[in-house]
Amino acid sequence: MTDTLTITVIEPEELAPVGRLGEWLFAEGASLRMVRPWRGEPIPSLDEIGDGLVVLGGSMSAHDEGEHPWLADLRELLRGVVADDVPAIAICLGAQVAAEALGGSTAVPALGNDEVGVVELTITAAGESDPVFGAVAAEAIRAAHRAGISTSDGTRLPVIVSHHDAVTHLPEAATLLASSDRSPVHTWRAGRLLAFQHHPESDPARVAYWRTRDALNDLAGSMDAASLQAARDALEVAAGRSAAPGAAGT
C-alpha cells in the first residue's frame, strides 16, 4: 500500500473553488488540505504543504498586496516551491503571482490580452514534449475533436478562460508551453511548477457565471444602484450554490 499524497490547495476567493481539479486529485487517491486566505487563514510555509501545491484564481490582482497582504507570503512560497523542486500547479491569479515571484511581470489590467469564455491554445514545441502538459494536452485535443469542439483540425487546445490581467514577461528560467491569439503567455513551466492562465478546474456553469458577472459590470452606468446590487447578490448566491459540490477539504 502506498502512502496517501497530501496536496495543499490555496483558494484565494470563495467563488473560485477547486472544482474538477479536486475531483481528479481525489480520484488519484490524494488528500487535499484547503487553505482559504479569504477566511483569514495564513499562507503555509514550504515545509507545511505536503507533497504538492495548487494555487487557484481570484478576482484580486497580483498587485493587490495592500488589500490582500497574504500575496507577499504566497510569492515567497512559490519561490520556495520552484527552488526545492516541489510539484505545483498555479492557475490564473496563481500563475500571475508565480510569474512575479520568479522575476517575470504581470500587466494589471492587460489591455488587449483579456479573455472570457473558450479560446484555443497553440502548443509550442516545448509544450508538445513536456512530460506532463504535452500528454494531457494531446489527449484533451483528441477528446475535444471527438466531441465536435473546434480544435482547428486537431492542432489547437480549447480551454476555459476568464482574466483581465495577464503575464506579459516570463521569468528567465521559465519555458513557454502554450499561447492564445490574445494572450501570448498562457501556459508555462518553471522547474516542477506548471502555470496556467486558463481554468482547467472550471466547467460551463462557471463560464456562464463569469459572462453574467461581466455583463452586470457593463450595465453599471445604466442601472440604478439598488437594482444592480440586487442582481449581483442574486448572481453570487447562485454561483455559491453551484460551486459547493466542487469544494474539497476543510
UniProtKB/TrEMBL annotation:
Domain annotation Glutamine amidotransferase: ranges: 50-204
InterPro entries: ChyE-like (IPR044992), Class_I_gatase-like (IPR029062), GATASE (IPR017926)
Entry GO terms, CC: cytosol
CDD domains to which the protein is assigned, alphabetical: GATase1_1 (cd01741)
SUPFAM superfamilies named in the record: Class I glutamine amidotransferase-like
Domain of life: Bacteria
One Pfam family it belongs to: GATase
Name of this protein: Glutamine amidotransferase domain-containing protein
